[in-house]
Amino acid sequence: MHNVVISGTGLYTPANSISNEELVQSFNAYVQQFNADNAVAIEQGDVQALTESSAAFIEKASGIKSRFVMDKEGILDPTRMTPRLPERPNDEWSVLCQMAVGAAEQALLRAGKTAADIDGVIVACSNLQRAYPAIAIEVQEALGIQGFGFDMNVACSSATFGIQNACNSIQLGQARAILMVNPEICTGHLNFRDRDSHFIFGDAATAVILERADLATSEHQFDVVSTKLLTKFSNNIRNNFGFLNRAAEEGVGAPDKLFVQEGRKVFRDVCPMVAELIGQHLAENQLSVADVKRFWLHQANLSMNHLIVKKLLGREAEIEEAPVILDTYANTSSAGSVIAFHTYQDDLPKGALAVLSSFGAGYSIGSVILRKR
Questions:
Q1: Residue 227 sits in which domain range?
Q2: What class of enzyme is it (predicted)?
Q3: CA 5 to chain centre
């Protein structure tokens, strides 16, 4: 079996950013209009008045200060509150493809590879803009890659699950190198009228090149020491949007056709599961938590990450041990942990051990042990 390395990463960041203050201004304008329009029903107790939000509340609840978005104007319009992304004709690259290609080109350059060196494309993300043809095959065509491509979805854990799938293909000799990309337009399935979640997500795309170690020439290589995955069914994070919605007209447009979660339950359930899985994974490879120089964790909530690392280390983590990009990117679903990896990897010395971990809906958790070459 071939040894596998990550030899390059890439990041596509949208041009527009929304601060907490901008988001709150739009949200509060909506709340004020809703309460005014429903004043009589609210007074009679038939409708519950909505509560305004604040930038301070958002940062305290999540650690998020701003987020990058594919469309700013539509989100901040209190009469719309959803991104405006016009349909494209079939002979143009889709929005997800465009984002994926932007990240992939960076990753290829960093890995010192061309399209001719890649034998497969995996698009791993939390939501795909169409059923078929696969976005991965479109990305493959856009980049001029031969071989195969397929899409997969394990929500926020999609990147680590995609890494394991890529490793399997390379280890078994089915591919020399795989491009794994995570294009996420999370604002497209976020309810911007929900006070508890309207601030959570941002948009971005990441890319990872995995290849046979004996063929790698990059200066940015990490050995994939081991991967470990876990899933356990839960309804606490859910999105019921799908092709059968049209067969049940009564549910079309309902809040559950967007992202919904029981946030406190997710926090309570997921934090110990992630810490336990990472600890087990290290032990199975005769490694200890003390050996790990860096944790690139899923960027969903700052308090979650602090608690997970504290459970592992037995103390508060230093900022360089568990770097954060959540403050400026918000939760970008599958892309988040890879953004942290892409941004905070070059300072690690040769031989340094690190863990890339993502977790989210499903529940799903992925852990990837890496060693700097």
A1: 222-372
A2: transferase
A3: 21
In a domain, 120, yes or no: no
Contacts of 276 (CB under 8 A, 6+ apart): none
Cα–Cα distance, 358 to 367 (Å, whole number): 7
> What is the tally of structural domains in the chain?
1
> Residue 329 domain-assigned?
yes
Q: Are 82 and 71 in contact (CB under 8 A)?
A: no
In this structure, are strands 16-19 and 222-231 parallel, antiparallel, or unpaired?
unpaired
DSSP states of 258-326: S-EE-HHHHHHHHHHHHHHHHHHHHHHTT--GGGEEEEEE--S-HHHHHHHHHHHHSSPPPTTTS---H
Distances (CA, A) of 48 to 35, 39, 44, 54, 158: 9, 10, 10, 19, 37
Residue the block writes with tokens 């988040």: 336
How far is the C-alpha of 197 from the C-alpha of 13, rounded, in Å? 22
At 349-362, the pLDDT tens digits run 999 999 999 999 99
Closest by CA position to 180, among listed 125, 131, 138, 116: 125
Residue 81 identity: M
Write down the catalytic residue from 97, 125, 156, 186: 156
pLDDT digits (tens, 9 = 90+) for 212-251: 999 999 999 999 999 999 999 999 999 999 999 999 999 9
Q: Is 338 inside any structural domain?
A: yes
Q: In 3D, which of 127, 126, 150 has the Cα closest to residue 138? A: 150
Q: Which helix (DSSP H) or strand (DSSP E) does residue 158 occupy?
A: helix 158-171
Query: Residue 268 belongs to a domain with what CATH number?
Result: 3.40.47.10
Using alpha carbons, select from 368, 122, 121 the residue that is nearest to residue 224.
368
Asked if residue 228 belongs to a domain, the reply is: yes
Q: Is 125 a catalytic residue?
A: no
